[in-house]
Amino acid sequence: MKLPPRVINDTDPSALSIEEALLRIRDVLPRLQDAQEIDCLGALGRISAADIHSPMSVPPFRASAMDGYALRVADCHQALKLDGQSMAGHPGSDRLEPGSCQRITTGARVPDDADTVVQQENVEYNDGTVTIKIMPQMGLHVRNPGSDSKQGELLIDSGTRLGPSQLALLAAHGISSVQVYRKLVVALLSTGDELRKPGNRLEAGQIYDANRPLLQSMLQDHAIEVLDLGICKDSESALEQRLTAAQDADLVISSGGVSVGEADHVRHVLERHGQINFWKIAMKPGRPLTFGFSGPDQAYFGLPGNPVSAALTTLLFVQPAIRHMLGRTLALPPPLLLPLSDELRKNPGRVEYQRAIMQQDSQGNWQVGTTGLQDSHVLSSLHRANCLIELETGSTGAAVGETVKVYPFTNFAEPVL
Question: Residue 366 and residue 345: Cα distance in Å, rounded?
Answer without folding.
Answer: 21
